[in-house]
Amino acid sequence: MSNYPTNLTDSQWRFTEKILNDQRKRSHSLREIWNAIIYLVKTGCRWRLLPPDFPHWSAVYYYFKKWKNNGFFEEVLDTLNQRERKLHKKKLYPSVGIIDSQSVKVAHTCGQEVGYDADKKIKGRKRHIITDTLGCLLLVLVHSAAVQDRNGIKEVLPLFKYKFLGSIKAIIADAGYSGQPIINRVKEQGKRIKKITTGLSPSLLSGVGQSIRPYYVLF
């Protein structure tokens, strides 16, 4: 068995194994497959450069693709979020989402579309992220850094609405998500935009910092 700082602890594996619910005997340990995937994500190494004490990289990649396509990774994330919300005496499903974006540089060998973020002066990829008020990740969408926030939300909102239909009452955004295109997109989703420049109600944000001005609340 491999021994790296990135490996799952026994309690973390028990949590993951319960969701996986697969007791079949296999030639490779699914725990070691998980450890290899986490190692790769944390270190950024290539698939073929995974250390030899992990299962062969092709086996690791097979399970990565399988779990990505069948929604298993998302199920693990959702279960973790619900557990965290329960610990904080919150409802299982959030009523408020907070959206923001981040552009990051990528290696020149990146096989996906890259672009230039003129605002951040970064060439690479951009991720749009929605969290709840605890900071739990609810949704992430990655594309070229050239995609402006007001255009990226056109892809994010329908996915978010589908996943949390019925529970979300508001999405908090900064000024990057303003303008007529985003207003039109929000209206298409049956919502409206309200601009708030004096801070937000503590009962609405409950623990979210108020350093961003102005806020745009998508109801």
Features:
single chain; 219 residues; alpha+beta; Nucleotidyltransferase, domain 5; 2 domains; 7 helices; 37% helix
What kind of sheet is the major sheet? 7 strands, mixed
Overall pLDDT confidence: 82
Low-confidence stretches: 196-205, 207-213
- In the CATH hierarchy, what is the class of the largest domain? Alpha Beta
| Total DSSP helices | 7
Cα distance spanning the termini: 50 Å
**Percent in helix:** 25-40%
Class by SSE composition: alpha+beta
Content of β-strand: 15-25%
Name the overall outline. Answer: globular
CATH-defined fold name of the largest domain: Nucleotidyltransferase, domain 5
Query: What is the number of E strands?
Result: 7
Number of domains: 2
Q: Write down the Rg.
A: 20 Å
User: How would you spell out the order of helices and strands?
Assistant: HHHHEEEEHEHEHE
Just name the CATH architecture of the largest domain: 2-Layer Sandwich
GO molecular function: DNA binding; transposase activity
Domain Transposase IS4-like: 94-190
InterPro entries: IS402-like_dom, Transposase_11
Domain Insertion element IS402-like: 8-76
Give a topology summary.
Layout: H1 10-20, H2 30-43, H3 57-69, H4 72-87, E1 96-105, E2 115-117, E3 122-131, E4 137-144, H5 149-163, E5 170-173, H6 180-188, E6 193-196, H7 202-205, E7 215-218
Parallel strand pairs: 1-5
Antiparallel strand pairs: 1-3, 2-3, 3-4, 5-7, 6-7
Helix pairs in contact: 2-3, 5-6
InterPro entries: IS402-like_dom, Transposase_11
GO molecular function: DNA binding; transposase activity
Domain Transposase IS4-like: 94-190
